[in-house]
Amino acid sequence: MQNLNKDLFVLGTPLQLLNAIEARHHFGDRPSSLALLHWGWPASAFDSLLGEMEWQEIVWVPMAAQRPAWRYPMLGPDASSHLNEYVWTYQQYRRRRRLEAALARFGRVDRLVVGNLLGDHMRHAIGCIPHAELMAVDDGTDTLRVAALRRNPSKVPEEPPPAGLIKSVKQSIRQRCEWDCVQPEAVTFFTACDIEIGPSDRLIRNDYRWLRGRAAGGGRTNQVYFLGQPLIEDGYVKESTYLHYLQRAIRYFGGKPVVYIPHKRESTRTVALIERELGLATVHFGGPIEVVLALGSELPDMLASFFCSALENCSILFGNSLEVVAFHLPPHVLICGPEPVEGIYEYFRRRQTETFQVLEV
């Protein structure tokens, strides 16, 4: 297919799409195509945003895959595990080929705009598309981690050549199946985050001008919205710890009605526990909270969470019109990642205003 596009956007979440639309408005509308890497978000989560701008072409690329954990009674646990790994390797090969085939249609582009650079698949996509400029849009607080990694890149030692024919064949197969995830030489960050960038990178601030212009304003719900995070599912905290600190946060509101907004990756078990043990009402929104609030008719009295990036985004969007609170999880309660999490809190503290606060509970 002959490429006629100025820009190509390769994105994976509704939040990335929102920030991509902000980027298009910032630079002025140009012919652009969109490749949406479909990881399990329902298509309806993208609908309201996809209708906001014209795209030359939209390509959906199925990416979701689940590592097999089958047990074969005739084989035993060890052989079953090995067979599952072979099946997973084949699935990964199919996924890589599917992505490469979908992106090959676009040819060379002037500007390639991507989502989360922590994702191996996203860095692989960059290598598939010849481009003059690479830009990355925000995908939550991961932007802070990406910028830090690019300022202080760690050198990965080269893998020695395999000894023996079988190991050589295995390495060759692995190279054809796994993501080619080399860090790009230079990135332009289009971000709402106040980050320090590396010497080869460039920074353009996203002030959500388009979405702020669309904000409907209106009344108040007389409720607190607490944004859930998949901290149990991602291994940051124990189930009991999450419930304990969530309950302490709820007490801060002094009886004001609190509505819990589950994250897409929170399990049904976690949500059911929160409803049963803490007595909270839960509401599932179909897209990023930034869009839900900006285009809706009402704002909550307060927006709260632990270290969710939407807190700062909404502080930028609504300014003094919305009180935003990040409740601090102390490092000693975190099973993994205490330093990156504390780094996010330190960043939030530097960004505090009269209506955006980090609080201890």
Q: How does this structure look, described?
A:
The radius of gyration is 22 Å and the shape is globular. The protein is 39% helix and 18% strand. It is an alpha/beta fold and 361 residues long. The strands form 3 sheets. Strands 3-2-1-4-5-6-7 form a 7-stranded parallel sheet. A 6-stranded parallel sheet has the order 11-10-9-13-14-15, with helices on both faces. About 3% of the residues have low confidence. It starts with 6 loop residues before the first strand and ends with a strand. It contains 12 helices and 15 strands.
List the helices and strands and how they pair.
Elements: E1 7-11, H1 14-27, E2 32-38, H2 44-50, E3 57-62, H3 76-104, E4 109-114, H4 120-128, E5 131-137, H5 142-151, H6 165-177, E6 188-191, E7 202-205, H7 209-214, E8 219-220, E9 224-227, H8 239-252, E10 258-261, H9 268-278, E11 281-282, H10 289-295, E12 298-299, E13 302-305, H11 310-318, E14 323-327, H12 338-350, E15 356-359
Parallel strand pairs: 1-2, 1-4, 2-3, 4-5, 5-6, 6-7, 8-12, 9-10, 9-13, 10-11, 13-14, 14-15
Short descriptors:
361 residues; 7-stranded parallel sheet; 6-stranded parallel sheet; 12 helices; globular
Short description:
The protein is α/β, with parallel strands linked by helices and 361 residues long. The chain has helices spanning 14-27, 44-50, 76-104, 120-128, 142-151, 165-177, 209-214, 239-252, 268-278, 289-295, 310-318, 338-350, and strands at residues 7-11, 32-38, 57-62, 109-114, 131-137, 188-191, 202-205, 219-220, 224-227, 258-261, 281-282, 298-299, 302-305, 323-327, 356-359. A seven-stranded parallel sheet has the order 3-2-1-4-5-6-7.
